[in-house]
């Protein structure tokens, strides 16, 4: 078997921000990992920064694979790729480890039952292989170009790995090149070979008394009884599934008095997030979108929550005029965060050519240009060009410009929707 044959990467969702508490994992294997990391990187300064950064919630989803732990880290306005690398054990090292483990019935029994026993460290030491990181074995790499090595992002990732070990200590084996299922199957193979070798020695009729006197004695049949019993143990059948309970009665009104379907809102938010990522991939945005700030999240809730009482509470508590929140929510409903940016942040855009090519020369409507705002002269209608390359229609109401429809990559289409809303078909 190759070093990582059958092993595959595993992904884990990002940890939320934590206030205080331990930065090291609480379980035995998590503590062993964190202690080994601190022995390899003994400088307290980077470790202290790493423990603090690990609690900020700014480390993205973590990927654990043979020889590698990786995550994206959000450092202010930049995003960094951070990696920890460890040596993957070769096949000979794994074979030796399972031989030493098979000599220990209690550890063997625990591994076959799906547990990673603490005393496995003794078998690791007997085999003289590395399970925990050591000098010259653990390295860190990060795009941040920090002066410390390791940087706080790398040490924070190492501490968050100890949190993962609290839930699944088998990740230690995966980092070294073996998934849990592979490890158990290889241990079973060692036990089977030992059992077969013991049977052959017991049943060999050709051995003479002289040969017996000059060769090693046959092991006592009870020597590997525990291993044979563990390997031969039949699979326990699963119990029959209980009958499904009756579906709960649906109350006529929600218990909270608030009608809401969070799945719809989550799907809409996911779609908007996907569109922002696609805009970045196609070069419209130079940086990946940052997490929503307090105001953006307030606008999102006001725009998407179906209960009008929620919007009213947000209007009272947002700290800004209620009309600001109403306009922002209207913009969000037309295009999410990108539409909110168009409403609140004008910018200098040169797109008169794009406007002109959308009409024939004699049909081009007269406009007044101000940055990325194109206002139809003498009318309360306006197009705004977003940084994502789309045109957003606006209409003046009470001396304020309000978003009134979905954006389009074609300004003529956006204007058609806008004039249709306004009843000005003669512009088209």
Gyration radius, rounded = 33 Å
Q: Strands of the biggest beta sheet: in what spatial order?
A: 1-2-3-4-5
Q: Rough shape?
A: elongated
Number of helices: 16
Largest beta-sheet details: 5 strands, antiparallel
Helix and strand succession? EHHEEEHHHEHHHHHHHHHHEEEEEH
Structural class, from secondary structure content? alpha+beta
The count of β-strands is 10
How much strand content do the residues show?
5-15%
Distance separating the two termini: 70 Å
Outline the low-pLDDT stretches.
Answer: 1-6, 208-214, 422-428
What is the share of helical residues? Answer: 40-55%
Q: Report the average pLDDT across residues.
A: 80
Topology of helices and strands:
Blueprint: E1 10-12, H1 28-40, H2 44-54, E2 59-65, E3 68-75, E4 78-85, H3 91-102, H4 105-112, H5 120-127, E5 139-142, H6 152-167, H7 171-175, H8 180-203, H9 209-214, H10 225-232, H11 262-281, H12 294-304, H13 308-317, H14 322-344, H15 352-356, E6 367-370, E7 373-376, E8 381-385, E9 391-397, E10 400-403, H16 411-422
Helix pairs in contact: 1-6, 2-6, 3-5, 3-8, 4-10, 12-13, 12-14
At a glance:
This protein has 428 residues and is an alpha+beta fold. The chain contains 16 helices and 10 strands.
What this model shows, in words?
- By secondary structure, the chain is α+β, with helices and mostly antiparallel strands.
- The chain has helices at 28-40, 44-54, 91-102, 105-112, 120-127, 152-167, 171-175, 180-203, 209-214, 225-232, 262-281, 294-304, 308-317, 322-344, 352-356, 411-422, and strands spanning 10-12, 59-65, 68-75, 78-85, 139-142, 367-370, 373-376, 381-385, 391-397, 400-403.
- The chain contains 16 helices and ten strands.
- It has a five-stranded antiparallel beta sheet with strand order 1-2-3-4-5.
- The protein is elongated and about 100 Å long.
